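Render this sequence as a predicted structure.
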Amino acid sequence: MQADRIGRRKPAPDVRGRADVVGMAGRRARRVSNALPACAAVLLLGAALGAQTASGPLAAAHRFWSQRLTASAVKAFEAATRDPRTAAEAWEALGRIYTFKGWQQEGVFPGWHDEPEYRDRAIAALKQSLAIEPSRQSAAEALAQAESFAASPTVVPPAPPRPEVKALDAKLEAFRASQEAPPSEFDALLKERTELQADPAPYFTGAQIMLERRDYARATDLAMRGAAAAERFIAENESALRMSGKAAGARARSRAAALDILGAVALARMDLDGAARQLEEAHRLSRGQDFLVNYHLGELAMARRDPEQAQEHYLEALALTSGPEPLRRRAREALGHIRASLEDGAGFEAWLEETLAVRREARRTAMLRSVMDRPLPRLDLRGMDGRAIDLAALRGKVLLLNFFSSW
């Protein structure tokens, strides 16, 4: 028994089992240890996503304003003012937009006018930015500028042209003379320009270039995109078109530009009836004041073998001061050939200059006549003393009305 007891030694500890336990414990410890930086990473990622969520609307707002999609920019910045993380920057941006609208947008685009009602709002928005973040130097500088404008509003110059936009427009125009430039280069340039500023001009310029390159499908596409861009751009900035009829006129001109391209494409494909429909509507919308429409109507008349009608449209085109020089040159050459076919072409240059001078003077006279001898609309006027003026009581007398703008 004793031997048995002596012989039966207690089983040795299961080292392997202990090692497994230790190993499992170690692995658990390592998992816990590894989990700590993972948790930290999750927390950091969450914070980053939160910041990104906060900056997302702000980034979109800045993009809208860069493109001069003003209504969308204002709406997005207003939303960003409700987030404490972006409020100071958003209020500053709103103050800068209101400063532009109140004092600096006169003539920046055709038909735009300053909006004096935004001036107080500009100063208030910039002060709000500084109230949230007193050390915000850029807001302080913008406020100082707005207050200087308020002190002497009559000497505020309009905002200067954006140099980056001008540079891209010049590059687009250069494509007219570079027929060998690859289409991919043109596409990249057009994309850069339209993303920088959302006005329709680059689409219409590009459509004309594609028309000259006989790429009629792309010319049509760009014309349609230009019409859509014009509609959006006008809607986004309609309050800047303060005077009666300015927004309607801007829409009519953009539709005329698109129809002109579509008509020229139809003409190139010898769809003369389709070209006539598009170009005559464009002529109506532009009130005969668009060089390209008149030029293409001249080309249509030549295709219809009507040199006298072609001469009329070419002269109308050249009587205007606009239009790309290559097309003005072609119009003059076409007129020279028409004159030679109708009668002796001797003295063509003198005849052309005299004829254009007569037409320009007739246009100027017609414009003056259009605003004379018309009934005065109802005007609610007050004198310097604040009393109402009854215009009906002044009927039959000479009355001088001096119209001026507060900007």
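Summary. The chain has three domains: 2-49, 57-155, 163-369. The longest helix spans residues 15-66.
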